[in-house]
Task: structure prediction
Amino acid sequence: MATHKGIGACGALMVALLLFLVLGSTAVPCVRATPDEAALRAAVQSTFAQVLSAEQDGANVTNAAAKLNTALGLIENAATESGTVRDEMLASAESILAEVSASIPALKSEGEQALFWGNVTLLSEIALTAMGLIFAYILVPLIYWRLWLRSKRDWKLQAK
Amino acid sequence: MEATGKMMDDELRLVVMGIILAAGVLAISQTTVGQFQFEPFSTISILGSNMTLDNYPQNVTVNQTNRLYIYLDNQEGHLSYYEVRMKLGNSSTATGPDSPSQAEQIGTISAIVPSGNHTLIPVDFRIDATATNAKLIFELWVIDSNGPHYSGKWNQLWINAT
Result:
């Protein structure tokens, strides 16, 4: 009987331990590692290089530059803070950098299109100017004299 | 009579072609303006607490926070990543365009400035010991894919701290 009691207590203890382990493992909070300042500054530098490359491809990078500045500001201000505030600022900077980085392909695509249409506009302007000059050379005297004759068509010549 | 008519034709052509050419050049220049940067440069300036070229702190109190503004202008023709290194030296501290100053660095400010734009950055500084003829030096560094390098541009303020 005593043995049975011992086995029962031992089983209950085992179940309790098992439950503790299962529940304990699920209750462990999932903590996201906060990026450190140096890593974020390196990330700013690499993101800046990507934005610069997009600009060279014709992209308008004003918004991306503003976001990078915001991230830089957060990193610099985080240096004077501590604890959760600092972690939040750095996490926010990291999130902004990821956002800018993700927008690079779209920026490049827009830039390429803008560059293409810019070239089309420039070539059209040159072609139109050249055509205008040729037409002016050929047609201006014709048009002028035709208008001159039309304006004078009711005139009568009087010989004295 | 025929010669007069021919001359008039030529004059007409010249006038109309001149107008078309001027309009064409104007349109093309509007399209291409800003695409070429003939003389790229960056500028660093120090502005006083009123954001103007005066009211600079010359005599400051030890451990008192003073405000200045740094004006950065980017005319490089591309986006630029700047770092302003704030250093505190004395009257014998060498400054120049060839190499950065060896004075103690007391702060850093970073900014990314789009091409053709400028930015104004507030800077708070504090001197923690008495000093006579101290030099507050602001060096402009440029960060690119090779890391930061000294641009050769700097600015300085003479300060007494009591």
User: Anything to note?
Assistant: Chain A has one domain: 32-151.
